[in-house]
Each structure stands twice: as structure tokens, then as C-alpha cells.
Amino acid sequence: MSLSDFVIHIDEYLNELEINEAENVASACTGVVSAHINPHHRHLMLVAYDPSLGRSSHILGAVRTLGVHGQLVGL
Question: Is 46 exposed, middle or buried (0-12, 13-18, 19+ CB in 10 A)?
């Protein structure tokens, strides 16, 4: 398994419930190993995933279904 990571820059301020929901939605995507929002930088979600199983654009799309606006930022 080969892992890659990226950051989703989220435009909105998210409360604790919204953070948990966004992390859960991203974590449920195929190939995602972890998805966490930095508690000190609540607009940044770090996602680690296996690119042979999932796509970063799909993961971003899943987070956007929550009504969140965001962009991919590669590492």
C-alpha cells in the first residue's frame, strides 16, 4: 500500500459537531486511512489515503456534500 496525503482548506468556521461530521464523511471514503481537522487551525483537514483505492477529488466532494466550501491543497 502506498500512502499519499493532502489538505482540504475549508472556508467556513466549523463547530465541534461539524468537525466530527466532516471527519467522519471523509474517513468513510474508499482508501482513506485518516482524516483529521487540526484543532488549532480549524479550517485545515489533513487526509491520508491510498491513491490506488481512492481519489482526492472524491474525498473533497464527499466533504462538500455537507455544505462546506473547500479546496484541495497538495503536500
Answer: middle
β-bridge partners, 74:
6
Distance, CA of 37 to CA of 22 (rounded, Å): 9
Task: Please write the tens of the pLDDT for every residue from 1-52.
Answer: 799 999 999 999 999 999 999 999 999 999 999 999 988 999 999 999 999 9
What predicted TM-score, i.e. pTM, was given to this entire model?
A: 0.91
Sign of torsion, CA 8 39 13 37? positive
What is the grid cell recorded at 37?
A: 481537522
